[in-house]
C-alpha cells in the first residue's frame, strides 16, 4: 500500500458537482422496518396530535363481531388543509416544527403506521377548509410512491362520525389503520377479547408513562375505546391515567430528591440532573410497570415534557440490583445537539462520551458529587434489606419462559448470584409419566407439552405463558441448579414432585375433556 504524504492530505473531500438521486420506492419498505413496537407506534401518532394542539385524543379499536377490522387515532387538533396533508403524507416530507414540538424527523406518521398496517388513511379538517383525505397502501408505496386521494364524501363522513366533541369539534384529524398486522387473524373462541385486554393494558401503561406530564394536566386526555362497527355497541371506553416514574408517596432517602448540575463540553447550557431514591419494596405501577429491575434504574430523559427514555445508564455504569431505587430525571435541550441523539422512534437516547465526562463533574448545591448519590441509593436499598430482618440467600436468576414482570419481581425480592446463566423454561415432548425434566448443563426446565393445553385452560400458548405454574416451578427447583449434585433426599423430593404433578396434570386433562364433551 502506498504511503500517504501528510502534506497531501485533504481534510475536506474535493467534489466536482452534485447529482440528484431520488429514493428507490423500496425505501418505504425500509422505512417501515425500523422495529417500531405497537405501543411505540401509537405513541408517535399521539405525539402528532399533541403538536397539533389537541386536547382530546381517542384511540379506537373497531371490531366486526369477533374480528378486529381497523384502528383509528382521532384528535381535536387544528387539523390540516390539503397542502399541509400532502406534506405530512410525503415520504421524506418535513414540516416546520415549533420550538416545543415533539416531532423531529418528519417520518413518524409514515414509518410508525406502515410498520403495523397494510394501509394508512389520514383525513383532516380545519375551521376554514374542506375535509381532505389521503391514503398510503404499502403495495403502492413500494411500487411508485402513489398516494391515494380519499373520496371527499367518505372523508367528511369519517369526520362526522367523531363530531360533537367525540372528540372533534370544528377541526381535527383521523388516522386510520387497516390490515393491522398485530390483530388476530381469527378472532373466535375469545381470542379477540384476550388480545384486546392484553394490548390495551400494555398500551395504556406505555402512554401513561411516556406522556405522563401531559396527562397530569387538566387540559389533555387520551381515551381508549372498543366499538362494534355494525351495532355501534361500545365494549370499552376508559381514560389513560398518568404513570409518573417519580410518583412515590415518600422518598426512599430523606436527602432526596436532589438536583445536580454540570457543564457538558459542547453543550450550550448547563445540564441539570434531578436525582431520586424510590421507596423500597414498592408495589406501585409507577415503580414496577417500567420493566425489570435492571431496566428501571438510571436516566429518564425528557424532551419538551415527553419521556423519551425510561431507565438505563447510557454507558455511565453497569446496572446493579443494589441501585434498583435510583432514578434520575434529565430534561434535554429543546434544540438537538451532538451530546444527546434521539432515536427516530423516540424510545431511547444515544449519548456522547462528553455526557459521561459531565456526569463525573456533576455536583449539588453543597458540592457533593453525583457519585455520592449512587452511594446513597445503594445504601437505602441495603438498609431496607436489613430492616426486613432476614438476609436472603443469592439465587440463580430466572430466564426465558418466565414473564418479564415475574422475572422483575424475583430479581427485586432475591439477590442474584453473579455471572450465572439464568434458569429458562420451555415446553417439550416428554413421556407422559413425567411432568418436568431438568437439564443442569443448559440450565433448563422442560415442561411436558402433553399437559400444556389443560394447564392453559384451552387458551393459546406463548413463550411466557402459564406464569403462575412457572413461578412455582422456579421457586421449587432453583436450588437444584445451585448444587453441584443431588443427594438422596433431593432425588426423593424430585421423584415425589413428579408423581404429584403428573397426577394433578392428568386430573386437569380429564376436567378439560369433560368440559369439551
Notes on the structure:
The protein has 16 helices and 18 strands. With 517 residues, the chain is of the alpha+beta class. It folds into three domains: 213 residues, Heat Shock Protein 90; 130 residues, no CATH class; 113 residues. Pfam families: HATPase_c_3. InterPro entries: HATPase_C_sf.
Topology diagram in text:
Elements: H1 27-31, H2 38-51, E1 56-64, E2 67-75, H3 82-89, H4 108-114, E3 117-125, E4 132-137, H5 138-144, E5 148-149, H6 152-161, E6 172-180, H7 191-210, H8 212-215, E7 221-228, E8 234-239, E9 258-262, E10 271-277, H9 285-288, H10 293-296, E11 298-303, E12 306-310, E13 326-331, E14 340-342, E15 349-351, H11 353-361, H12 370-387, H13 404-413, E16 424-428, E17 436-439, E18 444-448, H14 452-455, H15 467-482, H16 488-516
Parallel strand pairs: 1-7, 11-13, 16-18
Antiparallel strand pairs: 1-2, 2-6, 3-4, 3-6, 4-5, 7-8, 9-10, 10-13, 11-12, 14-15, 17-18
Question: Helical amount among residues, as a percent range?
Answer: 25-40%
Number of domains: 3
**Helical stretch count?**
16
Number of separate strands: 18
| Low-pLDDT segments, ≥5 res | none
Tell me about the largest β-sheet: 8 strands, mixed
**Structural class from helices and strands?**
alpha+beta
Could you please say which CATH topology of the largest domain applies here? Answer: Heat Shock Protein 90
Spatial extent as radius of gyration: 27 Å
Strand content: 15-25%
Instruction: Give the second-level CATH assignment, the architecture of the largest domain.
Output: 2-Layer Sandwich
* Euclidean distance between termini CA atoms: 80 Å
Anisotropy-based shape: globular
Mean pLDDT: 87
Main sheet: which strands, in order across? 5-4-3-6-2-1-7-8
CATH class of the largest domain: Alpha Beta
Amino acid at each position: 500500500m502506498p504511503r500517504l504524504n501528510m502534506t497531501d492530505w485533504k481534510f475536506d473531500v474535493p467534489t466536482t458537482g452534485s447529482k440528484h438521486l431520488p429514493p428507490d420506492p423500496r425505501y418505504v419498505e425500509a422505512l417501515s422496518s425500523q422495529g417500531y413496537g405497537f405501543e411505540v407506534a401509537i405513541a408517535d401518532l399521539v405525539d402528532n396530535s399533541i403538536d397539533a394542539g389537541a386536547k382530546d385524543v381517542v384511540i379506537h379499536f373497531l371490531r366486526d363481531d369477533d374480528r378486529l377490522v381497523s384502528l383509528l387515532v382521532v384528535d381535536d387538533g387544528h387539523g390540516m388543509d390539503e397542502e399541509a396533508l400532502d406534506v405530512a403524507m410525503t415520504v421524506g416530507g418535513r414540516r416546520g416544527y415549533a420550538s416545543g414540538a415533539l416531532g423531529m424527523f418528519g417520518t413518524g406518521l409514515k414509518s410508525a403506521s406502515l410498520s403495523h398496517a397494510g394501509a394508512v388513511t389520514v383525513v383532516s379538517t380545519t375551521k376554514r377548509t374542506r375535509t381532505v383525505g389521503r391514503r398510503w397502501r404499502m403495495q403502492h408505496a413500494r411500487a411508485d410512491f402513489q398516494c391515494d386521494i380519499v373520496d371527499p364524501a367518505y372523508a367528511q363522513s369519517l369526520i362526522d362520525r367523531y363530531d360533537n366533541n367525540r372528540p372533534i369539534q370544528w377541526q381535527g384529524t383521523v388516522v386510520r389503520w387497516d390490515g393491522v398486522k398485530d390483530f388476530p387473524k381469527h378472532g373466535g373462541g375469545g381470542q379477540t377479547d384476550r388480545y384486546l385486554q392484553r394490548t390495551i393494558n400494555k398500551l395504556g401503561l406505555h402512554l401513561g408513562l411516556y406522556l405522563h406530564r401531559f396527562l397530569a394536566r387538566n387540559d389533555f386526555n387520551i381515551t381508549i375505546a372498543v366499538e362494534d362497527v355494525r351495532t355501534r355497541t361500545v365494549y370499552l371506553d376508559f381514560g389513560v391515567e398518568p404513570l409518573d416514574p417519580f410518583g412515590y408517596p415518600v422518598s426512599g432517602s430523606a436527602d432526596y430528591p436532589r438536583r445536580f448540575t454540570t457543564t457538558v463540553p459542547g453543550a450550550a447550557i448547563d445540564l441539570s440532573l434531578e436525582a431520586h431514591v424510590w421507596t423500597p419494596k414498592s408495589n406501585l405501577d409507577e415503580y414496577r410497570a417500567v420493566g425489570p429491575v435492571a431496566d428501571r434504574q438510571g436516566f429518564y430523559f425528557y424532551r419538551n415534557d415527553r419521556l423519551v427514555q425510561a431507565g438505563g445508564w447510557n454507558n455511565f455504569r453497569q446496572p446493579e440490583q443494589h441501585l434498583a431505587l435510583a432514578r434520575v430525571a434529565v430534561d434535554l435541550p429543546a434544540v438537538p445537539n451532538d451530546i444527546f441523539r434521539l432515536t427516530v422512534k423516540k424510545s431511547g437516547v444515544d449519548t456522547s462520551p462528553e455526557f459521561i465526562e459531565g456526569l463525573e463533574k456533576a455536583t449539588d448545591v453543597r458540592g457533593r458529587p453525583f457519585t455520592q448519590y449512587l452511594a446513597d441509593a445503594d445504601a437505602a436499598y441495603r438498609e431496607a434489606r436489613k430492616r426486613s430482618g432476614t438476609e436472603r440467600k443469592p439465587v440463580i436468576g430466572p430466564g426465558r419462559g418466565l414473564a418479564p414482570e415475574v422475572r422483575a419481581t424475583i430479581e427485586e425480592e432475591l439477590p442474584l448470584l453473579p455471572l450465572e446463566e439464568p434458569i429458562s423454561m420451555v415446553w417439550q415432548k416428554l413421556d407422559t409419566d413425567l411432568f418436568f425434566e431438568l437439564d443442569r448443563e443448559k440450565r433448563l426446565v422442560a415442561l411436558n407439552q402433553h399437559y400444556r393445553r389443560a394447564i392453559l385452560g384451552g387458551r393459546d400458548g406463548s413463550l411466557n405463558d402459564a406464569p403462575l405454574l412457572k413461578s412455582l416451578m422456579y421457586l421449587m427447583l432453583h436450588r437444584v441448579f445451585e448444587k453441584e449434585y443431588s443427594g438422596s433426599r433431593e432425588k426423593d423430593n424430585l421423584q415425589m414432585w413428579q408423581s404429584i404433578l403428573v397426577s394433578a396434570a392428568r386430573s386437569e386433562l380429564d376436567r378439560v375433556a369433560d368440559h369439551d364433551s
